[in-house]
Design a protein that fits this description.
With about 270 residues, this protein is of the alpha/beta class. The protein is built from nine helices and 14 strands. Helix 1 runs parallel beside helix 8.
Amino acid sequence: MEKLIITAAICGAEVTKENNPNVPYTVEEIGREAESAYKAGASIIHLHVRWDDGTPTQDRERFRACIEEIRRRCPVVIIQPSTGGAVGMTDEERLQPVELLPEMASLDCGTLNFGGNDIFVNTETTIKNFAKIMNEKGVKPEIEVFDKGMVDLAIRYHKQGHILAPMHFNFVLGVQMDATVRDLAYIAHSIPEGSTWTVSGIGRHEFPMAAAAIIMGGHVRVGFEDNVYISKGVLAKSNGELVEKVVRIAKELGREIATPDEARRILSIKPRC
């Protein structure tokens, strides 16, 4: 079994300091949280950025400042900007961080209900255009999947030449698709041979899904974007604390943790020179 890749989604676009005062907004706070996750064992930082007041933004220069701060603190970590942004952003806004030529970026493969009246829209044109631009710039897409149909769309776009192999998927469970071992096994067995996958369990599902993925040979994402608690009713002090819990679970289950360079090999990422 391959070593375990841990991704830390350190702030997201929706969670706020009202949910947990340790959610980072400023460049310094984002750098601090990325460093805490990396030192605990994360190989990938999934990155949204905020203005200092907490407003989510896809501004290229704000991403540049945050990436430079993370690089200063942990030079070898893989930084994976989000192209999802926040509900209501245009495609042009969402694509800005790809202009910075990161090693990876997220690629949402479908439209979904995001709570209340919020709909997160990804048309077929959007998905194919995002994939085309990532291919041209040598950016490895992480295919974000919220239900089984998004896996099927990604496979279809791969067959059409829009998404290149080997594909890497992130199964986000607990939003639109249930977060159970049954559902995780079903969706994990739906991807093409040679693909890799990570699971992101939302809220209370974070650590049960992490444990299942560790046993099944998948990889794990944790972080304030998905869950702000270290245990029931107890707020996490940092993203690093969430990563440390995954490392402890993995150790008990006999799975070693991948370094960033080992993660690059597992995911077939060519590091930037």
